[in-house]
Amino acid sequence: MKIVAAKKILKANDQLASENRAEFAREGVLCVNLVGSPGCGKTTLLEAVFAQLAPTLSPSVIEGDIAGQVDAERMERIGIPVVQINTDGMCHLEASMIAAAAQGIDLKNVDMLWIENVGNLVCTAGYDLGEHLRIVVLSTAEGDDKLIKYPAIFQRSDALVITKTDLLPYLNFDVAQARAGMQRLAPEARVFEVSATTGHGVAELVQWLVEKQAAARD
Ligand SMILES: Nc1nc2c(ncn2[C@@H]2O[C@H](COP(=O)(O)OP(=O)(O)O)[C@@H](O)[C@H]2O)c(=O)[nH]1
Ligand SMILES: [Mg+2]
Fold it and tell me: Which of 67, 77, 140, 174 has the largest count of CB atoms under 10 Å?
């Protein structure tokens, strides 16, 4: 019987991820891996961020979904170059998929490459894709206890974006509790409070991203 060790597969993924990261860096592209549960607001956040990005910065997107292309169509509608990956049942993206998708992107004319990962707080945590930044999105509707229940994804992120803050008056989400949880799990990470629908807090996130992009170019 042949037994394949998961550790070996992950090692191969890490190797490919490093190659992706090096390639993106060579091209001066900041790569961002956007993770969060289904419906937390990842695509709406992308739309809000792109609306506020200076026209001098060119973003491109890789959309990861189990099936369908609705998010890629949303990106096309706002004029963002996009490649859709369908994982056909797999709950996360892997570095090899990103390497393949990146071949369909003109990296020389891109400043920020966004990866919208498959909606999932568990599987996505274990796979480095070659990103420079990992941003985890948590919507107020999901509850502030998700940091306690799914620590790995928060631990391995460079920023937490608390979305749907416009809904706070109707929910019992405790922002201070979520901030304290992130401080415990990832003390270096930034925390942003955003409503993608009203635009509240988006400018602060965009400013941080622009700074990170400038650093990637140096
Ligand atoms: N009230 C409110 N709704 C939001 C916000 N962001 C996203 N939504 C809604 O949440 C739902 C899922 O959003 P979507 O961006 O598709 O989530 P994704 O699956 O994480 O990409 C949609 O109905 C959005 O309109 C927000 O900031 N406030
Ligand atoms: Mg989406």
Answer: 140
Question: What pLDDT digit, counting tens, does each position of 159-215 carry?
Answer: 999 999 999 999 999 999 999 999 999 999 999 999 999 999 999 999 999 999 998
Sheet strands side by side (includes 82-86): 82-86, 59-65, 112-116, 30-36, 133-139, 159-163, 190-193
Query: Cβ contacts of residue 161 below 8 Å, gap of 6+?
Result: 45, 135, 136, 137, 138, 191, 192, 194, 205
Average pLDDT score over residue span 2-12? 77
| Residue ID of nearest Cα to ligand 1 atom 28 | 164
Report the atom number in ligand 1 closest to the C-alpha of 194. 27
Q: Is ligand 1 within 6 A of the CB of residue 135? A: no
If you average pLDDT over residues 106-129, what whole number do you get? 96
pLDDT for 110 equals: 96
**141 DSSP 8-state letter:** G
Q: What are the extents of the domains in the chain?
A: 6-217
CA 41–ligand 2 middle distance (angstroms): 7
Q: For residue 117, report the distance from its CA to the centre of ligand 1, in Å.
A: 15
Among the bound ligands, the one closest to the CA of 135: 1
Q: Which atom of ligand 1 is nearest to the CA of 137?
A: 20
Q: Is the pLDDT of residue 8 over 80?
A: no
| Residue position matching structure tokens 């998961």 | 6
> CATH fold of 6-217, please?
Rossmann fold (3.40.50)
Token readout for 116 is 């919208």
Ligand 2 ion: Cβ-proximal residues, 5 Å cutoff = 42-43, 71
